[in-house]
Amino acid sequence: MRNWLLCLCALTVVVSCSGQQQHYNRYDNFNTDSIIQNERILLAYYKCVMDKGPCTKDGKIFKRVLPETLTTACSRCSSKQKLVVRKMLLGIRAKSEPRFLELLDKYDPDRSNRDALYNFLVTGN
Protein backbone atom coordinates (compact mmCIF):
# COMPACT_ATOMS: atom_id res chain seq x y z
CA MET A 1 0.00 0.00 0.00
CA ARG A 2 2.78 2.44 0.87
CA ASN A 3 4.46 1.77 -2.44
CA TRP A 4 1.32 2.80 -4.25
CA LEU A 5 1.26 6.12 -2.45
CA LEU A 6 4.85 6.90 -3.12
CA CYS A 7 4.50 6.04 -6.79
CA LEU A 8 1.49 8.26 -7.10
CA CYS A 9 3.27 11.00 -5.16
CA ALA A 10 6.22 10.96 -7.49
CA LEU A 11 4.00 10.71 -10.53
CA THR A 12 1.99 13.63 -9.21
CA VAL A 13 5.04 15.78 -8.84
CA VAL A 14 6.40 14.93 -12.24
CA VAL A 15 3.12 15.24 -14.07
CA SER A 16 2.37 18.54 -12.42
CA CYS A 17 5.48 19.91 -14.09
CA SER A 18 4.17 19.14 -17.56
CA GLY A 19 1.93 22.20 -17.50
CA GLN A 20 4.23 24.39 -15.46
CA GLN A 21 7.46 25.21 -17.30
CA GLN A 22 9.01 27.01 -14.32
CA HIS A 23 9.05 23.84 -12.18
CA TYR A 24 10.90 21.54 -14.59
CA ASN A 25 14.22 21.69 -12.75
CA ARG A 26 12.58 21.34 -9.35
CA TYR A 27 11.98 17.62 -9.82
CA ASP A 28 15.00 16.65 -11.89
CA ASN A 29 16.52 14.73 -8.98
CA PHE A 30 13.26 13.25 -7.69
CA ASN A 31 13.80 9.90 -5.96
CA THR A 32 11.19 7.67 -7.59
CA ASP A 33 12.44 4.54 -5.85
CA SER A 34 11.71 5.94 -2.39
CA ILE A 35 8.15 6.74 -3.45
CA ILE A 36 7.58 3.28 -4.90
CA GLN A 37 8.82 1.69 -1.66
CA ASN A 38 6.50 3.66 0.69
CA GLU A 39 3.06 2.07 0.44
CA ARG A 40 1.47 4.47 2.94
CA ILE A 41 2.23 7.55 0.86
CA LEU A 42 1.47 5.73 -2.36
CA LEU A 43 -1.97 4.69 -1.08
CA ALA A 44 -2.77 8.24 0.05
CA TYR A 45 -2.07 9.59 -3.43
CA TYR A 46 -4.02 6.77 -5.00
CA LYS A 47 -7.02 7.57 -2.82
CA CYS A 48 -6.71 11.24 -3.75
CA VAL A 49 -6.72 10.72 -7.50
CA MET A 50 -9.47 8.11 -7.26
CA ASP A 51 -11.69 10.44 -5.17
CA LYS A 52 -11.50 8.04 -2.23
CA GLY A 53 -9.59 10.26 0.19
CA PRO A 54 -8.20 13.74 0.87
CA CYS A 55 -5.57 15.33 -1.35
CA THR A 56 -2.36 17.14 -0.55
CA LYS A 57 -1.32 20.15 -2.63
CA ASP A 58 0.76 17.89 -4.89
CA GLY A 59 -2.10 15.40 -5.02
CA LYS A 60 -4.49 18.07 -6.28
CA ILE A 61 -2.04 19.07 -9.00
CA PHE A 62 -1.52 15.46 -9.98
CA LYS A 63 -5.26 14.86 -10.09
CA ARG A 64 -5.64 17.87 -12.38
CA VAL A 65 -2.95 16.88 -14.90
CA LEU A 66 -3.23 13.08 -14.72
CA PRO A 67 -6.00 12.80 -17.35
CA GLU A 68 -3.91 14.56 -19.99
CA THR A 69 -0.78 12.65 -19.05
CA LEU A 70 -2.50 9.29 -19.41
CA THR A 71 -4.49 10.16 -22.53
CA THR A 72 -1.44 11.56 -24.32
CA ALA A 73 1.07 9.00 -23.01
CA CYS A 74 3.11 11.85 -21.49
CA SER A 75 3.60 13.53 -24.86
CA ARG A 76 4.04 16.99 -23.27
CA CYS A 77 6.51 15.74 -20.67
CA SER A 78 10.19 16.61 -20.80
CA SER A 79 12.67 13.75 -21.27
CA LYS A 80 13.39 13.66 -17.54
CA GLN A 81 9.68 13.70 -16.70
CA LYS A 82 9.05 10.84 -19.12
CA LEU A 83 11.66 8.75 -17.33
CA VAL A 84 10.11 9.43 -13.94
CA VAL A 85 6.49 9.02 -15.07
CA ARG A 86 7.33 5.77 -16.82
CA LYS A 87 9.17 4.43 -13.79
CA MET A 88 6.30 5.45 -11.52
CA LEU A 89 3.61 3.87 -13.69
CA LEU A 90 5.61 0.67 -14.00
CA GLY A 91 6.13 0.70 -10.22
CA ILE A 92 2.42 1.20 -9.59
CA ARG A 93 1.60 -1.60 -11.99
CA ALA A 94 4.10 -3.94 -10.32
CA LYS A 95 2.68 -3.18 -6.85
CA SER A 96 -0.99 -3.66 -7.77
CA GLU A 97 -2.22 -4.47 -11.26
CA PRO A 98 -5.88 -4.03 -10.19
CA ARG A 99 -5.25 -0.50 -8.87
CA PHE A 100 -3.20 0.34 -11.94
CA LEU A 101 -6.08 -0.75 -14.19
CA GLU A 102 -8.61 1.09 -12.03
CA LEU A 103 -6.53 4.24 -12.41
CA LEU A 104 -6.38 3.83 -16.18
CA ASP A 105 -10.11 3.10 -16.39
CA LYS A 106 -10.94 6.24 -14.43
CA TYR A 107 -8.81 8.55 -16.56
CA ASP A 108 -9.10 6.75 -19.92
CA PRO A 109 -12.52 5.12 -19.62
CA ASP A 110 -13.03 4.55 -23.34
CA ARG A 111 -9.52 3.06 -23.58
CA SER A 112 -8.81 5.27 -26.57
CA ASN A 113 -5.16 5.73 -25.65
CA ARG A 114 -4.41 2.44 -23.95
CA ASP A 115 -2.18 1.16 -26.77
CA ALA A 116 -0.15 4.38 -26.85
CA LEU A 117 0.19 4.35 -23.07
CA TYR A 118 1.35 0.74 -23.00
CA ASN A 119 3.79 1.53 -25.82
CA PHE A 120 5.11 4.43 -23.74
CA LEU A 121 5.57 2.09 -20.79
CA VAL A 122 7.50 -0.40 -22.92
CA THR A 123 9.61 2.00 -24.98
CA GLY A 124 9.66 5.26 -23.00
CA ASN A 125 8.57 7.17 -26.11
From TrEMBL:
PROSITE patterns: PROKAR_LIPOPROTEIN. It comes from Eogystia hippophaecolus. The keyword Signal applies. This is Chemosensory protein. It comes from the Eukaryota. Gene3D superfamilies: Insect odorant-binding protein A10/Ejaculatory bulb-specific protein 3 (1.10.2080.10). Keywords: Signal. Residues 1-19 form the signal peptide. Pfam families: OS-D.
